[in-house]
Structure formats: C-alpha cells, structure tokens
Amino acid sequence: MSITRISLAAGVALATLVAASQASAAAFYLQEQSVRGAGRAYSGEVADRGAASLWWNPASIAGLDKNEIYGGVHLVQVDSQVNNAGSTLTRPVIPGGLTTPVGGEPYAGGPINNGIVPNLAGAFRVNDKLAVGLSVAAPYNFTTDYNSRSWTRYDALKSNLKTIDVNGVVAYRVNDMLDLGVGVSAQYTDAELSSALPNLSPLLPDGSSSLKGDGNWDYGWNVGAQFHATPALTIGASYRSEIKHKLDGHVVVSGLLGPLAAANVDTDGKATITTPWMANLGARWQVTDKTTLNASVSRIGWSEFDQIVVTYPNGGSVSEQNYKDTTTVAVGVDHDVNDKLTLRAGVQYDPTPTPDVGRTARVPDGDRMLYAIGSTWKATDAIQWDAALSYISFDDTKINRTETIYRGTAAATTLNLKGDVGGSAVVLSTGLRWSF
C-alpha cells in the first residue's frame, strides 16, 4: 500500500472514531437511566432505594424487604439547527493554496435524530441484609444524520453510536445506618460513521468514507454507599470506573479521482477509546411527612477521554481530544399528594466537557439546563407506575474545528469548519416497578 493510501486510511479511521465518541448529549453520555429519577432531574437517585436506582448506586438495594423489578423507556425528541458561519476548504494549489467556501446547503435542520432509551433492572433479596441485582442500560447511544449536500459533509454525514451495559451488583446492609454495594459492569460498543472527502479540484464530485466499528465486551466496576444519618436524612455516594474500549473497524474509501484515485481503500483497523469515570454525591431529606428534598453533585472524569489511538497495518495515529472534567448539579422535590400519588419536580445544570476550539458537527455539544416534572401512581401494593416529562435547553454554541484531510501527503487539504448551533429537547419517560 502506498504512503498516500496508508495516510488516508488512518485519517479516515481516526476521524470517524473520534466523531463517534463525541456524538451524544453531554458529550456522549445519556443519563436517562431511571424514570423516577427523570421526574426530579436525577437529583435524588444516588440516595434513593430500589432497583430503579441501581445505575446510580449499587448500595441502593441493600436490606430490601421484597424483590423488585424495574423497567422504563425514554422517548427523546430533539429540535436542533446547525448553520454555516463561513466554513472554508484550502486545497494544495501552488503557490499559496486555493481557499474556497465549502459550499453545499448552508442550513441543517434536525440533524440529531430522535431516539428511544430503554432500561431494565432487578433486585433480589437473599436475606435481611444481603441482596443481589442486575441492570441493563444504554448509557452511550446517539445518532446524527446530515444531508449528503450539507456544508458539514467533510466533517460529518452519519454518526451512529450504540452501547449496552450489563451491571451485576451485590449489596449488604452493615447496620441500620450504613449500606454498601459493589458491581461489575460489562459494556459493549459499536459505531457506524460516514463523511465526504474532497477531490483536488472543486469541479469534481466528492469521494466518500465510511467506517463500521464493532467492539468487544469490556469491563469496569462500581461501588457505592448510603448513610442513613437519621430516619429522615439519607446521604448517598457512588463511583463508577472508566472503561477502556477496543473497537475493530472496517474502513472503506471510494470516489477519489485523479492523483487521489490510488487512495481508494478497503482495510481493517483498530481503535481504543476510554469512557469517563463518574463520582456521585447526593442526599434525600424528608422535611415533612409528605415532602422530601433532593440534591446531588456529580463529577464526571471526561479527561479520561484525552485521546484516541488508532492502529492499522504498518502504522498508527493518535488524536488529542482535550476534554475536561465537569461537575453537574441538580436539585428536586418529591411530594406525596396521598397514599396513591407522588408528584416530583427538579432542575439540573449540565455543562459540556468539549473544548470551545475543536468542537465538531458530529454532535456539537453545549452547556444545558434540564427542567423536569414527574409522578408515581401506586396502582396496587405491588405495582407502581412512574412517568416524567423533561425539557432540555441547550446554550447557543459554536462549531470551531480545523483539521487536515490527507495529512502528511502532497494532497493535504485544510478544512476550517465554522458554524452556529442551537436547539432544545423534550424527553417523555414512563416505567413500572413491581415488588414481590
């Protein structure tokens, strides 16, 4: 394989895997893991009890009186706009290069696809102190889709990231004041991504690149505790480890013409990425017989996602990501209207870990505020129905990324991507909890 083809294959694999990792709300993390939690903006789950809180704290099931099954689904509806703000492409034309607008459709409406996020969990009582649990979640799932004529096409066309997380838990009640829990998480990831590639002449049609990456089952761990300071006050804390993922990818490049024709390629490659660790601290305080206040602080270790390493036959590449750790803050309230009905509300501030310089069109992330309301209806002594409605307001933000296509070759072409982004989302959540 020629140097040009090797460099191009590496660049395509690297660009597409980087994009997959960025394609999600709050970078690439979906926090919709509990319908009950959604109703109070996830402000109380680390200090609450039952199978619905397993994602947030493995200690939540210690000392259960009954077995419990939880199932929930979240319908995510996104309204987003991505507009060109002067993006250019500089081709290697002697003497100083030829800089032209990227062209294409200057406005992209709704590139972030709507989606469904399911969760399932079970908690099973062994004795008065010991319980075991299992949760199945989809923490990193997102899809964006741009028109093939979009101004974003050299950076992003389609991005599809899917994960499955299966977490086994053992929890133990030490005494009336302290519960402990530990879990092992198995996580699977795959991705499908595509983008356009420019030919050397602006008069020629674009080429294309695509990647399908299949991961393996990779593993992490989580621990948690709940301290029942008084009958009215519970403080919860948990930690979920980072997970290093290894993806096996298949890269296809086609449609390149003239001097670039030799760079059309069909090859295998590998990449490694690391998902962040998460540390949660929260409390639930029952201020009256009917009203409970909730608060939580989450520190997310996005700096673990500092680079993506790609290897392929006869070479490899490293892409720096420069993500920063973030702190998410939420407050909420639960109010028992009567023995059958509980109402909830909450608000959350969730900052983006993505750098202002380097943000892409794959999913341009921004700081957000989440406002939520919810309820629980106790249908019978054994069955509770949870529902929630969330509205997410995204700060207006900028796409600002410069990258070199065909880096390290005489065909090196500079993409200077600039855009304006705005949007919001609505999440409808519903679920059931069954105790027996």
Describe the structure.
- By secondary structure, this protein is mainly β.
- It is built from two helices and 23 strands.
- The radius of gyration is 24 Å and the shape is elongated.
- Strands 1-5-6-8-9-11-12-15-16-19-20-21-22-23 form a 14-stranded antiparallel beta barrel.
- Residues 1-25 have low confidence and may be disordered.
- Residues 1-25 form the signal peptide.
Tag the structure with descriptive keywords.
436 residues, mainly beta, Porin, 14-stranded antiparallel beta barrel, 2 helices, 58% strand, elongated, disordered N terminus
Overall, the morphology is elongated
Quantity of strands, as a count: 23
The main sheet comes to: 14 strands, antiparallel, barrel
Query: What's the N-to-C terminus distance?
Result: 63 Å
Strand line-up of the largest beta sheet: 1-5-6-8-9-11-12-15-16-19-20-21-22-23
CATH superfamily: Outer membrane protein transport protein (OMPP1/FadL/TodX)
Q: Enter the CATH topology name.
A: Porin
Radius of gyration: 24 Å
* SSE succession: HHEEEEEEEEEEEEEEEEEEEEEEE
Mean pLDDT over the full residue set: 88
Give the fraction of residues assigned to helices.
under 10%
Helical/strand content category: mainly beta
